[in-house]
Amino acid sequence: MVHYLLGALTLLCFLASVLPFVPIPHGIFRIFDFGRLQILTISFVTLVSVVAVLPRDHYYYTLVGLLSVSVFIELFHIIRFTPFWWQQSARFEPDKHDNATTFKMLVCNVKQSNRNHDKLISIIDDCDPDILVLMETDQIWVDAMAGVADRYGYQLSCPQDNSYGMFLLSRLELTKGDIRFLLNDSIPSFHCRFRFEGGDEFDLIAIHPDPPVPHRDTIGRDAEILVAGKKARYRKRPLVVAGDLNDVAWSSTTRRFLRVSRLLDPRQGRGMFNSFDARFPFLRWPLDHIFHSEEFELVAIRRQPFMGSDHFPMYYELAYVSEHNNDLPDTPSVMDLKEARNLIQTESKRERRPVGEDWEK
Question: CB neighbours of 66 closer than 8 A, spacing ≥ 6?
Fold first, then answer.
């Protein structure tokens, strides 16, 4: 019985590790990108059990080989989001920069049906962000933030009852604030320009593409992420991209986004900062992201306490510097640019309802 159990676990771990390599943008393959830390844990425990329990025969060596491959694949993907990897975003050191400007951001998917408004307000009070970006905001959430909004000079709001509403508050001067529906008429994104007191400006793109599900393709999600990547590639100002991307930091889509956009991921070399699912400790992965251009260095990144949503709020502090020490990502290949173009063209030609628009009703 133990032989069969270990064999079944080995097969499941191996399949879960290799299925994301299938180059098809569909949820049945992409869904296994998410739980790589969990798959690594199960693979390692199963490997130890095989070594401890089974006799050294052909069956044993087959299981050890498959599990070793699984462990290697998972480590290959997640190790860059541990302190054992080099940091892509440089740590800001004030004594090395005379005219640096810092600002704080709080980004949170509030979960539309969550009504623990006071818990989020308490976190906002503690973090005191210069820019607040909320996702899944309906009109009830916007109304609940009225007291917070009074403290900020600038606001951009797009309340929706389909789990894709967005809301932004800023103390920094908002010189441009556009609400754009990039590839789907039901999924908004924010495109903002802020001005520091010294006159320098930077752009922010906030996006929340729809999540992958096993029975549908992920073209919409992947394409919207890559639209932001292409906009970043041809940027004219320093840029930050933030939001719930419904994708993990180590996926092929996010890695392609980094190469296309030439933006930096401050989690590399620091940690995963798993932001979802806040309700279940063993089922967590990094869904909420911030990426920045080389003009910024990292001051701080912290996950905030549970506030009733399935996402933890994420706090970021960046420094705008004149000279940086960042490690730039790889340049995109011809295939990266071709794949991005094909995904965007495919999604732009079709009409569809976003995934999960009735989940919170």
Answer: 10, 11, 13, 14
The whole-angstrom distance between residue 283's C-alpha and the CA centroid of its chain comes to 16
Question: pLDDT tens-digit profile of 19-51?
Answer: 999 888 888 888 899 999 999 999 999 999 999
pTM: 0.94
End-to-end alpha carbon distance in the chain: 45
d(CA 107, CA 114) in angstroms, rounded, equals: 16
Q: What is the pairing mode between strands 131-135 and 101-109?
A: parallel
Tell me the pLDDT of the chain averaged across its residues: 93
**Exposed (0-12), middle (13-18) or buried (19+): which is 150, by Cβ within 10 Å?**
exposed
∠ CA 288-289-292, nearest 5°, is 165
Output the furthest CA–CA distance in the chain (Å, rounded). Answer: 71
- How far apart CA 266 and CA 45 sit, in angstroms, is 30
Which residues have C-beta within 8 Å of that of residue 223, sequence separation ≥ 6?
183, 343, 344, 346, 347, 348
Distance CA 289, CA 301 (A): 11
The closest alpha carbon to 181, from 232, 220, 236, belongs to: 220
| Residue 219, token pair as written in the block | 């073209």
**Residue 356: what pLDDT?**
81
* For residue 277, cis peptide bond before it (omega within 30 degrees of 0): yes
C-alpha–C-alpha distance, residues 258 and 264, integer Å: 7
Contacts 24+ apart (CB under 8 A), 83-87: 83/269, 83/270, 83/271, 85/268, 85/269, 86/268, 86/269, 86/327, 87/266, 87/268, 87/269, 87/270, 87/327
Local confidence band at 120 (pLDDT 50, 70, 90 cut-offs): very high
Residue 361's pLDDT is 67
pLDDT in tens, 142-155: 999 999 999 999 99
The alpha carbon dihedral of 201, 266, 255, 211 has a sign of negative
Alpha carbons 245 and 255: distance in angstroms, whole number: 13
